[in-house]
Every structure is written in C-alpha cells, then in structure tokens.
Thiamine pyrimidine synthase
Amino acid sequence: MTFLTPTRRLFLGGALSTAGAALFAPPRARAQDAVALQLSWLHSVQFGGSYIAQDKGYWRDAGLEVSLLPGGPNAPVEPPVVAGTALVGISAADYTAAAVNQGAPFRIIGVAMQKNPFAIASLPANPVNSPADLVGKKLGMALANTPVLEALCTVNGVDIDQIEVVPTQYDAAPLVQGQVDCLLCWATDLPVAMEIQGVESVTMLLADHGYAVHSQTYIATEDSLANRRDQLVALMRGEVMGWQDYHADPEEAAALTVDMFPDAGLDLATQKLQAERQVPLMFSELTETEGFGWFTDETVAANVETLRLLGKPVSSDLWDRSILEEVHG
C-alpha cells in the first residue's frame, strides 16, 4: 500500500448564478491580451477555480487569453513573475517574504487559502488534537520544515526538544506502519490519500493553533501594479468568478480537472475528496462578507508576526488590497 502524494512545500522541506455573473461582468481589457498565471504546483483540483475560469470563458470575456503554467519541483513560481513571463503567480506568504527579503519587488494581491493547509496527521488510537499532544511523540517530517514546527511550538508554549523529529519522505506509510506517531503534512493531501485507502486519520490544522501564514496567495510585481493594472483586475475578477463556481459545486470542479488533464494521472475520487477538504480552508465568514481572496489588516498583522518567528520579517506593505477592492467594488 502506497500513500505517496507530492506537494510543492514538502517535496522541497488541489456556479456563479446569473445574478452573480452579472454582478462581476468585467470591463473589457485590451482585446485578447495574452497573459500567464503561474501555478505553484502540478495540475490538480488545488487550482480548480482557475480551470473553471478558463473553461467558462470568464477571462476570455474580459479580453484576456490566460495560459495556466504548471509548477513543480523544478518550476519555482517567483522567477517567471519577476521576468514578466507570468503576470501573476500563486505562492505563499512565507515564500514571498523570503523573496522580498532578497530584493524581489512583489506584492501579495489576494489570498486563496484563508487557513494555512499545514497540519499534523495522526491515527485515532494515538491522536494529536493540540500542539501539547506532540510532547513525547515521534513526528515524521521533512527537516526543511523545522522552522514551521519551531513557530508552532513557540506560539503554543511547547518545548520542541520534547518532540522526537524523524526525517521522512512525504508519504503516509511511516504513520500507517507505526514508525512515527504523526506527520507534518498538508491537510489536503496525505489525509486524503489515507482516506482513499480506507485508513482513518485525525487532522490538526496548524492554523487553528496560531500558525498564521497565508497560502495559495496571488503575487504580482510592483511594476505590474503600476503599469498592467487593467490586466490584473481582469485576471483576478475571472479568478474570483471561477472560485465562486467551485464553492457552489466542488465535485464538478474535480470532474473538470480530471477531464482537462487526462495525462496527469489524476484519480477522480481523490480529486473530489481534495476539493471537498479545500472548501473550509478557502471560504469563511470573511470571504462570505467581503468576497473570495480577501484579507484584512488583522489577518495581515497575524501573518507578519508568524513570519517573524519563521525568520522572514516583512512589513504589512507586502500586502496590497487595491486590486481586490476594484474586483469586489
């Protein structure tokens, strides 16, 4: 039995109503401008809203021809955005903070995942329900993610030296076979892989215990914000419409993903479950009130604090809400 499931982070350390469509009817950008959206990982329902936007012509109707560029272990997000090859990239606040600290001219213009997907997965017979439960446990993880564990422990007053860290590949097998007590993973992949194989697990989201790092964020350069603003607004408006459709029918988004990428080796049942698990990470009372992708001064302040703990200090100026204000205006 294998549970190997790749994910960008841990490889290195898934219908608008007629009234809604009218509400977001976009002003036309220049006729069929060709732009690219750089994804953060390989094609999967993780980016289902973008596939809907493309399939339903939301970008085309706004005058954009959008290419969706897959990411992967050898396709980092930031270089094509800096070079202008991609108008927007999908990244995460910690990756963007690291790039900005090295001089990259990025701004975060939207937040798809309101809750960070990092989680501790365990088995019901020996569950981890809170950070304090990690004490005395064997935790399987990639050593590159040690700063994540350190930040979680600092926020929750847990002595990290009381946790036995076991370097593991990104695979559920060490947990299922009893080699470790728990795993650091994304809530949307290894727990999904285990459930598909009939293995029940317990998932503790780090975001529920003070680990505030925006994930699946949209980044653009300062130059694009100044000189390609109409394109940014059109792209993000189509993205919002696509994700609202996704929220209305995640299973349809999963089916579309599998149909669009028949050579990607995607399993429909897995994609459907991943699509379902993403919903509470991406949609909240905040997005219900303000719209998809929104962030507040308070959520930004929480991110700034967690990024400081991760050794990636930034100011709140890294986030720019002006594009979303036009989209949702």
In short: The CA atoms of residues 106 and 221 lie 4 Å apart. DSSP finds 16 helices and ten strands in the chain. The domain at 118-209 is CATH 3.40.190.10 (D-Maltodextrin-Binding Protein; domain 2). The longest strand covers residues 106-113.
